[in-house]
Give the backbone structure.
Amino acid sequence: MPLVARSTIEEIRNRVSLLDVVAPYTQMRRAGSQWRGLSPFNEEKSPSFFIHPEKNVFKCYSSGHAGDIFRFLQIKENLNFQEAIEVLAERFHIPLHYEAGDSAAGAQDLSIRKELLLIHEIATDYYAKQFMANNTLSETIRKYWTEQRRFSMELAEAFKIGFAPPADRELIELLMRKRFSLKAIQQCGLFYLREHERDMRAMKPRFRGRLMIPIRDVQGRVIAFTARVLPCTPAEDPTREAKYVNSPETPIFTKSHVLFGLDHARLAIQQTGHFVMVEGQLDTLRAWDVGLKTAVAPQGTSVTAQQLAMLRRYTMNVDVLLDGDSAGQKAAMRLLPMAIQAGIELRFLMLPPQEDPDSFFLQHGQAGYTKLLETAQDSMQFAIRVLAPEGGMSTASVKEQVFRQIAQFFEGVDTLASAHTQLRKAGQLLGLYEYTVDSYINKLAAHTPLPTPPKPATLQGNSSKLTTAEYQLLVLVLHHPDLAKKIAYLIEPEWIATDSTPGILLNRILAHIREGDIWDEKNNFEDILEHDEERDCIYGILARSSPFEEDPLKAANQCIKAVFIDFYDKQKAQLASALSQAHPEDHVRQQALQRERIEIRKKQSSPPAL
């Protein structure tokens, strides 16, 4: 694959804000000179992810990850460096130039992931064009959309609703003409081969005669489709009896990690503070059509812990819109324990009998939703109502049995304060004695480990301390470039202990400075970093403010003195060992070692300073 030109990398680094790159994954809030949010890498309830906007770097204390805009995408999207450059260039409309000077050659050798995203972009445009085509069949589909389903054409345009024709090889022929790789066409999920077939020309479209609903990731890129059956779906189609057919999982689509509508909903969450969870894609579109912009839906499966973690990065409040039947309530009860573990506060809104979100919003609009909020039940109210036996809760033992089931939801939570509050509320609603509730809370506390603060990334070598003089000097060199050159020319390379990652990096950077390089946070550190441990160390330092702003010169001299003394302490220890091993009769050897020890003491008594 042709290498991206250094000029392109630098242009991306200078033009693209890490805050914009991170925005689709977690919500950031200003915290002094930095920005703070929930980790996009781990599930957590207390923010441990920080961005230093001036230096355009991040540090995640829960995972230990740290880096720049490229590193963030590499970790989050499982990309290599070249792929991360391509994604950022495309997203922020920066032209790609390659070292060979031939961008076309680079485009012909794209990563599979890049190809799959491009295929879905082309397919989305193709299906949308078919939906709007000037022919009898497409006109029938539009009438189905506006008259039968009663959706607006504005909504179809906003979400790029499409139509897959019943007999269609045009799309695959279009992709072949655009010279996509066979591997990408086979893996995109839009086509399939029967088991006995091997010839690419025999590939068949997965979606025929269906309404096409694009599924997007949080960045708004189409990564899959949901296809609804229509009267024109061919009778011989193997999926004809299925009301909805979804794309299979691919390298860019894992259904348990995607929420339909989140790319739109996350942009409106600051206005409402609540996501609205509905059952399906058309429910989400209906909510959007009536003005409820924070609706989301799982991908045809039960809600997963990963999906809840995605929502938690933007808000802890989720309204669950339930069908009136018992199946909908049972599904909600499966959601409740996961929400408690994820730190999400749920409100349950019960629809009238025989209604689903699509029909409800169509008839009552957003005003109906506002009316439903008046009867919303929180997690404990809903759990008690669903868990209550048909015969009621007339005895204390039955009430305690229901409470015991609720208490099990909180086992293993890492925030006991919230658990205690909710369990006490459940106890009050059930009318249990306070000592009964407290006994369960005490049992829960006894079996829940105390939360521990996140550990810093382990550093290479036998020294794991982050406060060594080498580490502090590395901080000074990175944050105070005016001192870096002075430090480089004062310190001898052998003074620096290289049994830890900070020592190795300090020695390497000082060597670059001695060779005439200018070194500060604007450098392309990828040129000198050899593995992820070093990246986490460097970017972790850059993501924090300097602790030596008050007097960096004084701090530098203290650190220089520390490494100087430590170096000669080791020299003295080696001499003491040599003296103990020297033969008693070897006076010449002993005298030479003693003279050397005296010389070391003299040197050590006069440490250098800037």
Residues 101-109, 449-466 have pLDDT under 50 and may be disordered. The chain has 25 helices and 16 strands. Residues 69 and 314 are 20 Å apart (CA to CA).
